[in-house]
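Appendix B: a complete holo record

For completeness, this appendix reproduces one full record from the ligand-bound portion of the collection. The bound molecule is pyridoxal-5'-phosphate. The inputs are the chain sequence and the ligand SMILES; the output is the full three-dimensional arrangement of the complex, encoded as structure tokens. No fields have been trimmed.
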Amino acid sequence: MAELDWGRLGFAYVPTEYRYVSRYKDGAWDEGALVTDANITLSECACVFQYCQACFEGLKAFRTKDGDVVCFRPDQNAKRMVDSAKRLVMPPFPEDRFVDAVKQLVLANKDMVPPYGTGASLYIRPFMIGTNPVIGVKPATEFEFRMFCTPVGAYFKGGATPVAVKVSDFDRAAPHGTGHIKAGLNYAMSLYQTELAHHEGYAENLYLDPATRTKVEETGGANFIFITKDGKLVTPKSGSILPSITRRSLMYVAQHYLGMEVEEREVYFSELEDFAEAGLCGTAAVISPVGRIHDHGRDILLPSGMEEVGPVIKKLYDTYVAIQHAQIEAPEGWILKIC
Ligand SMILES: *Cc1c(COP(=O)(O)O)cnc(C)c1O
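The structure of the chain with pyridoxal-5'-phosphate bound, as generated:
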């Protein structure tokens, strides 16, 4: 295993030795290969630079107690990337090849999978870009699919501390109905708002549905989950939020491991003050508890508070992390053993 201070890793790019690359030209993907060059050389007029034709994914590999290296639900990322690519007029990268690339990549960089017990993991970043020059507005005809990995530290060192979020006056995603795809363009559209929120002391923006501004959507990069006072998990249903794999998996864990009732439905902003706990979910942090929601001069304080994570979210989090590390049995097909 590599000599790194695993316990002190943050969430920053640390280049690893190998990355996977496949190129699309003349209507077909090439066979793909692991390469060592971390740089990409492209025309200044490449479609990705001019018209942002790009999408990405994010997933993690873990080391288990027994020293095995496992990956969590890569097939789900493969499927979601197909959806993103189609929406951006890019050729889908075959799902089975995506999963195979994850295996090759993690195996080649296995020394960079952090040890069990450090809370650290190997973050895998697949992405796809339009590479040939286009000056008139149109999709590229040549593409690059690439996947690299970088070790990342435990998101919360010494336990999760609840965050505060604020209601944004802007919409999250680019207009044109791209809110459900995982693409840098949606992040580019929210960077300004995110900086504003940080400047005012909030971890994230809560975006409302653009049409009526009465329903909760998500934040810049994470979906919401809420816990009712009688212990039910409620999460917003919307066609314009990113379908989080963490959220989908947490819903399953809540229902099948913890015996909770689960509801995916429209969540009105006016309901928030009735919930007992709130959290933001995504691959990076699993769940960040939310203790306070700021809405134009008014604060909604969740009963779980800003001091520590609420009991239901804590239990969900612990169960989920144990499944990811193969400490408790995972549902069929969730854990891909790499080596
Ligand atoms: C990636 C992402 C999430 C979280 O999705 P996971 O699959 O759980 O990592 C949520 N919202 C947005 C906008 C995202 O890009």
